[in-house]
Every structure is written in structure tokens, then in C-alpha cells.
Amino acid sequence: MLNQDIVREATRLTRAGQLVKATALLQRMLQGGRALRPESRSASQARLPRLDPLTIDATADVVEERKAPQIAPARSAQGRRHSLPLDGMRDFSGLGLRSPIKRAPLSPSDIVPEGTRFIAGTFSNAAGSRTYKLFIPSRCQGQRLPLIVMLHGCTQSPDDFAAGTRMNFLAEEQNCFVVYPEQPSGANQAKCWNWFRTGDQRRGGGEPSMIAGITRQIMRDHVIDPKRVYVAGLSAGGAAAAIMGATYSDLYAAVGIHSGLACGAASDLPSAFVAMRQGGGSRAIADGITSVPTIVFHGDRDTTVHPKNGDQIIEQSAGATRPTTKVLRGRVPHGHAYTRTVLIDGAGRAISEHWNIDGAGHAWSGGSPAGSYTDPQGPDATREMLRFFLEHSLGG
């Protein structure tokens, strides 16, 4: 049972703008703390730790190098190029992410294949302005090509996310454009997409309108196939991708969500904490949301975003359909085992896939250690997402 006194008090503090105190209260609740008595509230709050507000995301779990398992990643040169050596909620606040450890600067060869372009752009509308980076494949010669929109996680940048996922390299193989909208620290201190705010869960306003605006701007400026436009993201970016699929189902043909949450899983700071630790509430399985083909990756040892959220995303994407289910199991050589659940509609089309990865934490599966929050032990989420995307088109 959730402690309703703590939830009510955290909600009151949030509405009053006291986000640091609200954050600490919610942490106490999720760690089994008791409600504060009214007469002791001031004294207890005075002892609360200082936290950075509104950082709804977290870290990747430690990824050890198999060739040198005895070396802790935090102490080795190779470890510094892997995921952050943080363990769940113990070393940091789920709302106050520590700065990433320093890694060697990315080189262009980490981000894009030779002979391709990765250019910067800006989009503005009534909701605000966002910069982005656009990958242009070497073989774009007039034919209409697919476009993938990639939404980074907290503390990440387009370059970092591109390096970690290696989406540009796969897009060069398949001849696709890729755009990486960037969330600035001015919009969220840790550069997280604000998936938990109701104003950023709606079509035509807030962050969804800017992400959709960037998508449409690329479609206008380049030769893009309007039936093959897709959106994907990691963690907070994955939650934002779920929102984009739910609110702009006429724009995106399929959605990829890694370690994220369903659209409507939270509506404010307190419910965001609960959703991350226990799964989203009833709004996560919302009525009236148009189903969009969705592929989900989630580690079963994710201590940042509960794996139950992956189940809820799949349930939401299935909508009112009654699909049949096919379950496949496999293992990456020298890497993770996984269970791949495919939902198939009455016409024999795969409408969703759920990859549950054994032993994986909060990190991009199969990613490159050149980027942050990656787990090189696979399976390859980038390749499988792109394969799933290109199997779907609007109206197809």
C-alpha cells in the first residue's frame, strides 16, 4: 500500500514549487519510509538531502567487460567508456541524476560513417525552439527515403545518442535519414524530455508539437517517404516516443521504445516516481489511443524503470485488437538471453514486439561503448528496431 499521507504532501509541495522537498518525500515512500506527522514535518524536511528537481530518468546499470571481469568499470579506462557505474537508486536520486563520468571525446568515426553528413538545424513554433542533428545517408539521390526520429535519454546529446545506438551506421546500410531532436537544459535541468507533464502529452502543444514540427520540417526540406516515418527513444526519450505514437499516429508508422513508459503513465512528479518504480497507473492503458505498431526493449533487471512498464506499452499498442501471440527465445553469443514476444493481428501482421532481456539493466541493448547508457552484450536493439520499422508503413 502506498502511503497516502506522503503522496498528498508531495503533491502539495510540488504545486507550491518545492520540488526538492517533494522529491525527497517520494524517495522515502518508495524506500519504505513512514508518513511524516504534521507536528514533525518541518524538522524532518530540514534533514532531507539536496536534490536536483525534475530529472525523470536514471542511469544504466554497470556493464562489465568480459575480457577483464575483475576490473570494476569505475576504475578502468575501458569502464569509463561503458555505462555509468551507478547501481539503481542507491547512489543517486531518480530525480537528481549525477553528471556522467568523463569519457574520451567522441570522434566523427564514432558517430557517422565516412562519406555521410550529420548537420545541425533548428525548429521553432509557439511552444518554443529546439535544435537537432540530421543524418543524411550517402545514397540519397532523389528517391523518397524513410526517416527515423531518435529521442535521447537524460544527460545525453544527439552526438552521444548516435554514437551509443549506432543508428546512423545502420541507417546508411538501409538508406534512411535519421534526426535527433535535442532537449536543452533550460527545458529540463538534466536534458530529459518531460514525459510526465500533462502539457507535454498532448497533440498540438508542448514538446510533442516541437518534435512533430522537427519531423515535418525534415519532410519538407528533404525527399522523405511520408508513409515511412518512425520515432524511437531511450528511457525519458522512450516515454516521449510513446507519447508521439499515441498523439501523432497519422505521422509515425511505428514506434520503438527502449526502457521507457507508456503514454499517460504519469501526470505529475509523484505519479512519475510511482510509475518508474512500480509501473504506470490506469491512464497508462488509456482508452481512445490509436494503436501504432510498437517494438519494446526492456531489461528484466532495470531498477530505474520497472519492467512492468514494457508490458503496459505493449498492452496500450494492442488497443482493442485480439492478437495471437508467438514467443521466441534466444541468446546472444557470450551475451544476454532474451524472450521475444510477437503479437500478430488477424491479417497475419506483427503489430508489436516485446524483447525482454535477461539480466539487463537500464541501458541500450547491443549499443556501442562509445556512447553512454549502453549494454554491448546485446541483443542489437538498433538493428531490430530498424528491421521492425521498415516492415511497417502508414496505411500498409
Automatic annotation (TrEMBL):
Alphabetical UniProt keywords: Hydrolase, Signal
InterPro entries: AB_hydrolase_fold, Esterase_phb, Plant_Biomass_Hydrol_Est
Organism (species): Bradyrhizobium diazoefficiens (strain JCM 10833 / BCRC 13528 / IAM 13628 / NBRC 14792 / USDA 110)
Matching SUPFAM superfamilies: alpha/beta-Hydrolases
Protein name in UniProt: Bll4997 protein
MF GO annotations: hydrolase activity
Gene3D superfamilies named among the record's database cross-references: alpha/beta hydrolase
A Gene Ontology term for the protein's cellular component: extracellular region
Keyword Disulfide bond: no
PANTHER family: BLL1128 PROTEIN (PTHR43037:SF1), UNNAMED PRODUCT-RELATED (PTHR43037)
